[in-house]
Amino acid sequence: MEHRDKKIVIIGAGSTGRSLARFFLARGAQVVLSDRRSAECFDDLEELLSLGIQLDLGGHTLERFMAADLVAVSPGVPLDIPVLCACQNNKIAMLGEVEIAWHELSGTMIAITGTNGKSTVTSLIGEMLKAWGQNAFVGGNLGIPLIDAVGKDYDWQVVELSSFQLETIETFRPRYAMLLNISEDHLDRYPDMTSYIAAKVRIFENQQEDDIAILNRDDSLVMQAASDVCSRKVFFSGQSVLEEGMSLVEDRIIWRWNGQETLFPVAELQIRGRHNQENVMAALIPLLLEGCPAEIAWGAATKFTGLKHRMEYLGDLHGAGWYNDSKGTNIGSVVKSLAGLDRPVILIAGGKDKQGDLTALIEPIREKVEQLILIGAAAERMAKVFAGLTRIHRVDSMHAAVGLAAHYSCPGATVILSPGCSSFDMFENFVARGEIFTREFRALSGHRESVNGN
To answer: 7-92 and 99-303: same fold?
Structure first.
């Protein structure tokens, strides 16, 4: 695509927006970076201006958008805001970052989406490719924008994709596309589950018959959503023994393909829980189909210890194990995390309410959670739904939450931050939330604090 002398407006000045700005500037475009946040929210304005970027801060100036040859949309920006609706009505071209990058890339693309587990699977595939000696970009929603892979000599791109990113694709066509699972999420952005699922399933829409769709056989929503996919389907299952595909049978993962069978012992994995075993199964499939020796792919899987902020073990305090699961930003994720824990659990939850259905947590909380500590904007609604299931405390800071959890912890208990909500009411992002939780845990220095909740 030719961008020289084109007028490009980029909406959203986060990391993806800035990467887009650098990309377009390097190709001779005239770039405007627009953000609803004011100048006071940015500490590097001089750097941005020195690059030749024009800034449109504190809102979006309609005239700038109407004069654009292309509007590049960052993933976090809803498409129904007034300025973008005006662009659509006036036939101004709009593309998302993933679509823009796709036109510039070569090599084999492995794209991963789903409500939960996609960061783990993306990172794990990256480790497997590294162990195989392959030159691979690993990023997307995971951290590094896909546009940063452009111009680099990557043979592979392994990309985590959110539903937001998939909203703005047009011709994006990965060789491998994964849909790991579907549960309620982002209902503060989507009007209903149907709209959320429709965004997810777009990952397959441009695939052809010789491409591969990797699907969770056990997830009825996945199977229904992908029923019309035209690419070749390869399944993984933790509940059924598949004649072809990847199965979990007791303590072994079994890969069956082209009449051959390969066994992998689950006990050799360092990441725990059924959901992580399913993540490993999904990650193995594209590597094995591409000819990676099974021992290399499995060796990388057994060395993988997981991601920060996702069931990250922090240590013991007074005989209780503490886990940072700040990346558990939806109810389905919390359900999966609790499934791998034994009673008694002290759960810290809450944050910015995504308006999801909380009832899926009722039985896990009743069965396993002895103390529920709630923070953030969602605390009131969660307290009402979970009333009578366990002892509930509402506090106004992470400091108070951690202190109260330490007060109630005992030998054999598990303390876990697994919010089931986004972080933006109290923290910059889930990373900041997890780091503050970790810092508060370490600051206890082995001493219990008595903090009153209400």
So the answer is: no
What is the CATH number that goes with domain 312-443?
3.90.190.20
CA 115 to chain centre: 7
- To 5 degrees, how large is the angle CA 295–CA 301–CA 304? 140
CATH class of 99-303: alpha beta
Which H or E element spans position 439?
A: helix 430-443
- The sign of the CA dihedral 86, 90, 92, 94 is positive
Query: 349 forms bridges with which residues in the sheet?
Result: 374
Question: CB of 83 within 8 A of CB of 59?
Answer: no
What's the CA gap between 67 and 25, in Å, rounded? 18
Rounded-to-integer distance, Cα 194 and Cα 189, Å: 12
pLDDT at 190 > cutoff 70: yes
Spans of all domains in the chain = 7-92, 99-303, 312-443
What are the tens digits of pLDDT across the range 379-403?
A: 999 999 999 999 999 999 999 999 9
Cα three-residue angle 200-351-313, rounded to 5 degrees: 85
What is the distance between the alpha carbons of residues 182 and 206, in angstroms, rounded to a whole number? Answer: 20
User: Which position has the token pair 């949309």?
Assistant: 73
Token pair 């609604």 is found at 381
Of 308-317, 363-372, 406-415, least confident by mean pLDDT is: 308-317
- CA 400 – CA 367 distance, rounded (Å): 25
Cα–Cα separations (whole angstroms), residue 372 to 261, 400, 440, 454 = 45, 13, 18, 11
**What distances in angstroms separate CA 453 from CA 67, 227, 383, 403, one per listed residue?**
54, 48, 13, 10
- The two structure tokens encoding residue 16: 């993806």
**Catalytic residue list:** 118, 141, 186
Q: For 7-92, CATH number?
A: 3.40.50.720
Q: How many residues does the chain have?
A: 454
